[in-house]
Structures
1.
Amino acid sequence: RVLFRSGAMFPWESAVTGSEVCPGEIYSDYEQHITGDIAFAVRQLWMASGDQQWLRNQAFPLIRATAEFWASRAIYNDSKRGYVIYNVMPPDEDAEVVNNSAYTNMIAKLNLEFAHEVLPNASENWKTIAQNMYIPFDSTNDYHPEYDGYQGIEVKQADVILLGYPLMVNMSSQLRRNDLSFYEPR
């Protein structure tokens, strides 16, 4: 099981109790991007509503707990010159457990940035981790590999495409096209 020191990790599949009920441990333990996905949904709701009272009264605890989770999962890697997240299952479940899923690392980065932006007394460490989050990138072919060691194999779904939409990651239109054209045949 993947351990984290603090914060809250949402279950991959839950019952009315909120407890994990997924029958496969590999999914329940490693498909952690759901935690960032929920924080992203909170951000989207707040941006659409502009409801500051809801943000403070209902969303702040969730935003803080998810940021604490990612901060406890990310570790600095000298060779990558950034923070990495090992042992996760990306949305492309056929990849199984990988290191540095482009999607997972990006959703963690966005979660940490959002928390630092809106929470009073937010940890400066969250900002540091977000600014230095390692996102896999192939500079030779100018595209995002799904994860460290990705060899261009067929994918169940192209997680990287989600960086462009719905995550709206700031990247050149050429890079967005490269990601699309690379994964479309796969």
2.
Amino acid sequence: LEIAAAGAAGFKHRFLGETVAVLWEKCVGGVWSGYTDNYLKVCSRTKRELTNRIVTTRLIELRDNILWGDIDTQDD
């Protein structure tokens, strides 16, 4: 399990700095979560309504094995 977790973290780390499309699903406590087209979970904080929207997002951090993104405001 440790080897699989390390491999998953390495895979996710490769996407840091990339800009990807994320389908945002839900917001809990001000944190949105959604998925990329290759099923990577992404979280972000924003006050925007994102439910069921695909928004261009720059992946900026890997924290607790979850990718965090900065939502591109040009999609408005």
3.
Amino acid sequence: MPSRGHGGRARNTVSRVFNHILVVCTGNICRSPMAEALLRARLGRRVRQVASAGTGALVGFPADPLAVEVAAEHGLDLSAHRARQVALPLLSSAELILTLDQSHSDWLNRHYPQLRGRVHKLLRWRGNADVQDPYQRPRAAFVQAFTDIEAGVEDWLQRL
């Protein structure tokens, strides 16, 4: 049932349709590519575009080999992924921007204050926790990051 939001406009309290979702981490080679692929697979046709980028991206680099391996074990293909830097045109087209840790949310809100309200942590409903960066860490760190990402994606799917 729609409720009245600020200004008397009808607002859907159950779900909202998003055409573009952007996932942001640091280098865009570990966490955000896994989250992007998982969101895309789970959302299917419910969203037009899911993308990812980094606040300090290793531009043009493929996904980390351990991220590729862990994602593949869950039926996700990261082989075509290439890292890209967060940029205003990409951010502006996203109705929902999901970050992997607080530093990403802080960075986005500091550099692009006009995006406030669109920037949320992936683990918002899990104590607003961070997904720890597995970069240059053992395989177990990538498995844990994927497990945390999957939990966050499932939480968001219930709300999209």
